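Sharing a chain and its predicted structure for anyone who wants a worked example. Both blocks are below, sequence first, tokens second.
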Amino acid sequence: MTVAYNDYMMKKNGFTLVEILIVIALIGILGTVAVSNYMGSTKTFSFLAEYKELVSQMRQVRSYAVTNKSVKVTYPHNSSTATVTPERYGLLLDTKDIIFFADDGPIPFSFDLQNPQNPSQQTDGIIKTMDLRGTPYSLTIDGGPLYLYYERGSGKLTTYENTTLTDKAAISFRFANDADLVKYITIFQVSGLVEGFDSPPAQL
């Protein structure tokens, strides 16, 4: 009777090898799921932060124009800096480049870069850049690079798709990462306002 009871208690209080292996496997599965969810949340948070920063900066360019904001710029042709109130506040949107600039170079409604034949020729002053190289983020813009020019005072918007002046009511483009996160940004031509969307906006 005593021997049988002791055998029963040993069997009751112990774990078999199979049970231990099952517990270890379950812990591993739960750990993998937790890490995957954490990585996914971190990726989403970073993507949304970059997207909101881009929309905010685009809105700020229009705000500068409407309020005649003086801005500090850097001139690439000689690396000098200055505080200016330009006639137009420009924005270049390309696949991996976003450049905010003062359109105060020699050619109006043109993003004047350094001229290799005349390195001392004045360029447009750079306000700020967002370089997406080395990141999983990019813009998808139909028609090539997009150039926006906001007139000082009125905030009137003039838009060029590559080098072609456009009179579209609105222009939309996609901001995405290398995986499955996508947002859309629309610029309304008449008002110059910038809005973000979760899905492709209807054709206007």
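Comments welcome. The chain has a mean pLDDT of 84.
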